[in-house]
Amino acid sequence: MNDDVQHLKLLCIFHYVVAGITTVIGCFPIIHLVFGIAVLSGRISPEPNDPIAASFMGWMFTGIAGVMITAMWSFAISVAFAGRCLQQRRRWTFCLVVAGLECMMMPLGTVLGVFTIIVLLRPSVRYLFGEVGDSAASAH
After folding, report:
1. Segment (H or E) for 98
2. What does the alpha-carbon distance between residue 53 and residue 46 come to, in Å, rounded to a whole number?
3. Residue 48: left (phi > 0), alpha (psi -120 to 50), or beta?
4. With contact defined as beta carbons under 8 Å apart, do 65 and 30 qualify?
5. How far apart are the C-alpha atoms of 104 and 87, rounded to whole Å?
6. What is the rounded distance in angstroms from the CA atom of residue 33 to the CA atom of residue 18?
7. Which pLDDT score is estimated for 87?
8. Dist CA 68 CA 4 (whole Å)
9. What is the CA 94 to chain-centroid distance, rounded?
10. DSSP letter string over 40-53?
11. Is residue 133 predicted with pLDDT exceeding 70?
């Protein structure tokens, strides 16, 4: 049991680190958002001076950047919350789903997601989360 508690503590810390990295990476599209807003406001006019193309380009930059920022920051919040849940040993299913989603974030998220899944699927860890009855605890 002591190893499981240590592994959960480490996973919690690594989830916070990956959430921070994801937040920083999610800030990069702010440059595109600012550029799109500048085009829409008329501060920057692309060549040739076509208002329809400029409007389209401005909305594309603004829209895609907004979606990217929202998605990355939402995912970072989910990863940080999963780290907190690991620390508190609550919401086992949520932690497992977030670990599966982390596997798409190469390379750090993949490593963290795989290790989190491996740890969470142990019967002794499920018992710590209160996911199984006493029969699993007596087996270990």
Report:
1. helix 92-102
2. 8
3. beta
4. yes
5. 23
6. 24
7. 92
8. 36
9. 13
10. HHTSS-PSS--HHH
11. no
**Closest among 139, 118, 133 to 4, alpha carbons compared:** 118
- If you compute the radius of gyration of the chain from its CA atoms, what whole number of angstroms results? 21
- Domain of 19, in residue numbers: 2-139
Residue 134 clears pLDDT 60, i.e. is over it:
no
Number of domains the chain contains: 1
| Contact status, residue 94 vs residue 85, Cβ threshold 8 Å | yes
User: Per-residue pLDDT tens for 113-128?
Assistant: 999 999 999 998 899 8
**Alpha carbon distance 19, 13 (integer Å):** 10
State both tokens at 53: 């193309």
Q: Is 118 left (phi over 0), alpha (psi -120 to 50) or beta?
A: alpha
**Alpha-helix residue ranges (DSSP H) falling in 26-129:** 30-41, 51-88, 92-102, 108-120, 123-129
pTM of the model: 0.81
The alpha carbon torsion through 4, 99, 84, 88 (nearest 10 deg) reads -40
